[in-house]
Amino acid sequence: MVSENKMIVQSMDLGIKTKHETSGWMLRTMGAIFSLLLLIGTSSSAFAADGAKLFKENCATCHKIDKDMTGPKLYEAEKRIPGGRDWIYEWVRNSPKVISSGDEYAKTVYETWNKTQMTPFPSFTNEDIDAILDYIDVTGKDLINGPTGVPTGKPLEEDPGVFSLWNWLRFLILLVVLLLGNIALQIARLRGVELLKGVDLNKMNARLMIGFLVFGMIAALWSSFSFSDMYLYSEGSASEHGMEIDRMFWITMTVVMIVFVLTNILLFYFAYKYRHDENRKARYYPENHKLELIWTVVPAIVLTVLVVFGIKAWTGIMAEPPADAYEVELNAQQFAWNLRYPGVDGEFGDINLHLIDGNNLLGVNFNQKEGQDDFMPNELYLPKGKPVILRIRSRDVLHSVHMPHFRVKMDAVPGMPTRFTLTPKYTTQEWRDKIGNQEFEFELACAEVCGRSHFSMKKIIKVVEEEEYLEWVKSQPPMFDPSIAYKGIDQNAASHTADATQVNESN
Ligand code: HEC
Ligand SMILES: [Cu+2]
User: Fold this and answer.
1) Is there a contact between 431 and 439 (Cβ–Cβ < 8 Å)?
2) Tens digit of each residue's pLDDT (9 = 90 or more) over 22-46
3) Is residue 61 in contact with ligand 1, taking CB distance under 6 Å?
4) Quick one: which ligand is closest to 399's CA?
5) Closest ligand 1 atom to the C-alpha of 336?
6) Of the four, 171, 271, 409, 453, which is 20 to 30 A from 293 by CA?
7) Which residues are found with C-beta within 5 Å of the ion, ligand 2?
8) Using one digit for the tens of pLDDT, what is the confidence trace for 457-469?
9) Domains of the chain
């Protein structure tokens, strides 16, 4: 008979040597096979063409090739659209305009898609759009015919995601492994095999504590160093206030690391040293005021110093921006950033939600001459060495402006405009040379999980010299088009009268 005690010990054991070594051996092999299966990932096919990049960066937010999403599936769109490719050129560059021009097809899709506004891409050339359509065509065909072009006869299928056959198989294998392991243990038990005979579990646990400490420390160091080239912190900051943030980051990191290492060593060493011992009696040591005072006051002082420096840095970053700062407006919506620049006059037109319509995405008051030269580019241009105020708004849900290289992060809150001022330190080209990667682009991303296409909510940031920036501002076409009848805008007043600032709300 196996005693009660032994049974508990046995059921705690998973794979330590048994008299009949089969079960342990079997377990380990199964474990190895299972981990191998987990490691084999699926490979992704690479499309090098520009069209792929353009599609993924700009359209994939709302469109899938083979399936409807926020917008219609784009495979063979050209065939179903009566206007063909020429229509698509116009549509992509300014879909609101196509809709308001009275185009029947445009109106129908717009209505069908619940009047969801597609972002206009005014800077896209015909060649850009050709490249996107080619990419869609090739990829769509692959999805139907297989990559070799041999028809598989399969229709476009839904991506099973996590419930793929392969994942079910892995799950099944895991179940089988666990079952077999359990069987092996039961057999050993029935045969009266004494697992862990003569092992002092208490001592073993104590040693494992030290083992865990060493293993954990090595793993922590290894992971920090092996991924260190992914840390943005190693490249330094691309903005001026970011230098201060980095400095504080490193000071905090150093303090935290020292405390982390010391406390962990003590924690595990004490667990080892003061393990249960028949011959030792615990000392009764109820309190020590001096010790308690030290471990309360020292961290309190350190934390206060860190927090005070943090508050000082933050008030500096949030201080009133200089009067000659440039301005950009970032309008967040699911799932895009709409950028607005004040135009050559440097003044924004007011925004009024009653003015929003298919032609006026942001509801800019075009009755004001300040609003008439405002423009909406596709890339966020910033001048090097000059303060720029980001004026941040959201149209639907919470989003968050995240420009990691510039150490910028600020929520975009519906109904509550926020602000962030930064001064870029390097042009994009200088940064590319600095990090030795000529493909590099700065990026604006959304840092708030705002919905299903949150992942693709990003914009390219281009930092250029101030002269180039001013040239670029001059070269941008204004969003206001005098030939369009905007909702709530007085056509006549809009033709350049400075004082016609009233919006006709009854319109
Ligand atoms: C913010 C979401 C969004 C983005 C980004 C977007 N689209 Fe759209 N697109 C739509 C919606 C919604 C429609 C349906 C019409 C409407 O409501 O405006 C549409 C319609 C279309 C149509 C007409 C399709 C048809 O079947 O008639 C084409 C073509 C198209 N988009 C191409 C593009 C391309 C190319 C890009 C990238 C450069 C792009 N879209 C980016 C939302 C988007
Ligand atoms: Cu978002």
Assistant:
1) no
2) 455 565 666 666 555 554 433 333 3
3) yes
4) 2
5) 1
6) 271
7) 399, 446, 450, 457
8) 888 999 999 999 9
9) 50-146 (1.10.760.10), 200-317 (no CATH), 326-494 (2.60.40.420)
